[in-house]
Structure formats: C-alpha cells, structure tokens
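As the next step, I wrote out a protein sequence along with its fold in token form, included below for the reader:
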Amino acid sequence: MAEANPEQQPSAGVSDPDEDSPNMIVYRKIEDIVTRIQHETEGVPIRTVKSFLSKIPSVVTGVDIVQWLMKNLTIDDPAEAIHIGSLIAAQGYTFPISDHVLTLKDDGTFYRFQAPYFWPSNCWEPENTDYAIYLCKRTMQNKTRLELADYEAENLARLQRAFARKWEFIFMQAEAQLKIDRKKDKNERKILDSQERAFWDVHRPVPGCVNTTEMDIRKCRRMKNPQKVKKSVYGLTEDSQSQSPVHTPSQQGRKDTKEDVKKEIMFLNAQLDRHCMKMSKVAETLMGYTEQYLDYDPFLTTLEPSNPWTSDDPSFWDVEASKDPSQQRVRKWGFSLDEALKDPAGRDQFLRFLESEFSSENLLFWLAVQDLKRRPLQEVSGRAQEIWQEFLAEGAPRSINLDSHSYERTSHNLKDPGRYSFEDAQAHIYKLMKSDSYARFMRSNAYQDLLLARKKLETEQGRRTSLEKFTRSVGKSLTGKRLTGLMQSS
C-alpha cells in the first residue's frame, strides 16, 4: 500500500490524543484488526484487478473481508461479521472505491484500506478551509473520474461564498497540491485520491449518512474549553464564548452534585432557546430576497400587458395562468422548488423531467397528499387509504422510498386517518426532491432550453412591438403633415 504524503494532505490540526478515552481504546482495537487483515501472509490478498481498458490497483473484495473476519475472530454468523465490518468501514478504515457510503457488503464490491495517516486515532479535526481546498482541487482534476457529486457542488458553492475574501489563497493551495499529485505515478495517484476522498466521506458524509465524528456531549464536559461548539460540517465553524459558572473547570476528583446537574440542565436549555443569528445577516438575507423578487412586485415594477391592480384589464392574470409560460415565469422556477410547484406549467415540466428519470412517483405522491388536505372531511378517510395502497403498501404500483421513521409514523397515523396523516412522509419526499431531483432539473437541458427559448421569443416580440410602434408613429406624423398641407392649400 502506498502511504499518504503529509505535505500534500489537508493541514488539519491534530490535538494530543487521550490514550485512556473510550474512543481511543476502540480505535486501537480496530486498528489492530485492520493491521492483521493487511498482513502479507495471514491477511486478505491485496491485488490489482484488470478492468475494461484499465487496471484497478490495491483492492480487496467484500467477500474476502467477511470471510477473514469469520475465520480469525471466530464468528459463526455472517451477519455479525458484516456488521463488524460495516462498523470498521464507518470509521474510514476500509472504504468502497466506487461509492461514498461507507458500509461493507458481502459480495464482489472492491474495497481499499485507508492509509494510517488518515486514521481517526490521529485525532483529525479538519476545518472548512481544508474541505474547500479539497473540493477546489477536485474541480481541476479529471472530471470523468473525480466529478463532484451534487451535495459536494452545493458545499463548494457555499464555502466559496463564505470564504470569498481568501478564496484566492484556497485556489493557490489547491493548485500547489495538484502539481505535487501530478508528479506521482498514475496508480499511486489513483490510490491517494480514493484515500483522501474516503477521509472526507468520514468527516463530511453524504447527506442522510451518520456522521461518526460528531462530538459526544460527555466528551464536551471533559474538555478544558467546553464552549467551543462546532456547527454542522456543511456550514462554517465558529467559537461561541459565553460565560457560565457551570462550565468553569472544577477541581480534579470532585464529582458533580445534584445542584450542579440542575444548573447545567438550565444552562443547556437556555442555549437551545438562544437566537444566534446576527441582525446584519438577517438584513442581508432580507435585502437579497427583496432584490430577487423585485421584478415580480406589481407595485414596484411595470407589468406587461398592464397592471391588473391599477387597471380594469385582467389579461395579465390570463397570461400568468396559461400553460405557455413567459421567460419571467420560467426564471422564477429557479428560485426554489416551491416556486416551481406553485406554477402549473412548472409543475408539469418538473413532472416530465421526473418521468424521464423514472422517479415521478415522488411528485405524484406529494400532489396526492396536497389534494388530500383540501378534500371534504367525509372523503378524507377513503382517499387516505387509496394513497397508502398506491404509494406505500407492500407491492404498491408506485412505491416510494421512505425512511423507517417516517414509514412507522405514517402507518401509525392511518389507524385514525386524517388530512395530515402523511405529513412526515410528505416532508421526507419533499426533502428528497429538493436536494436531489430539483437540482438536476435546474441543470437539465429541458429547463435551460425552455429558458433560452422564452428569452429569445420575448426578445423577438419586443423587437416587433418596437417596430410596430415606430411604424405607427411615422404613419401618424405623415398623415398629420398631409392634413396640414391640404388645409393650407384650401
């Protein structure tokens, strides 16, 4: 196995490890197992696999890992071996080469072992600047092999806005790391790329996956500075310092009393209710929202053909309700998924796109639940059962993908069906469409072509209108001159 070069890896800070902590004990045991698995003679065979027009270096299969665990750890049940292997993979010690989800499968899926440089026992605490450098470097590399996933592209855009002042420094760091990578052998570079990607899959996991590096609250209490609270890995990291007598370092060996625990509970409850958003950020968000919707405010912007609020002409509403949307309406779909679903034309276009991806059942389920909320009370119970049989029951013709929590809540609610029995399931499906399908719809050729076509059509109509106005004005002026001449001659 090729070792990672620390000079070209993220410059994350490494804290002094607590060798006696439960996490470190677990890490050492896992690392002992991983080291034995990689043993040259007694471990699993690490080999290079020939693929179509390429070679895949330094890989093992999931079957080999499971069989080794069963043989060397005296495990009789394959499910238990898979479970242990998945726990090891969740910490990043092993990882699939073609997937971001760190689990172990008992099949021919190829896996690699993580370099010791990236092991969790080194107490890595990567910062968002390191993540930004990594994503920026990925955009400079071979896009067919290292193309950013949707959630990574969103994170890169968010980090670029957050670090706008030092983005030039981040870009230079990414270029420097890329130059070092290009000097390496092709196979070694491929292994290092996958190891670095797996490291970030642990610390910046795919949305929906468990983040195994999140800090436990009991560990926070043992820290010298417990007020250092880390925000979500997809946002920025800030250090919020607030004074509290509860978190003042106490004498060693002194146990917490009942009163101390009560004070700590009161302090944590107060922190939960604390409003942390700055007024400057609120004002900036409000100004951005106002500027975005400025062209759609009938009191601030002149509407075409006329403003129905100040005139008796309702033709504007007819144009807005038509199935042939204007360029302004099409552009509004890109503001949010809500705007696309509010517009009947946008909803139809989004449904066609989902049909092309064979996932239209998500939107159909969402629309069915919306319709259920507007039904008369006597029809709610029967319609709720129809929705269950169509989308959620076993063998449903349009089965949707729900998490276990939402499914259990929905099945429990249907014991006494109501208008809001599918609230949890609808919220889950909406999040799936917003984070996945809607982003692809905005980048799809169907939406971009429609946007450009409407823009071109309105430009041509504007030119024709301007030409007609010019022709009418010239005609009126010529007619006026003729009448004046006739009056003078007479």
Notes: Residues 1-17, 217-222, 224-253 have pLDDT under 50 and may be disordered.
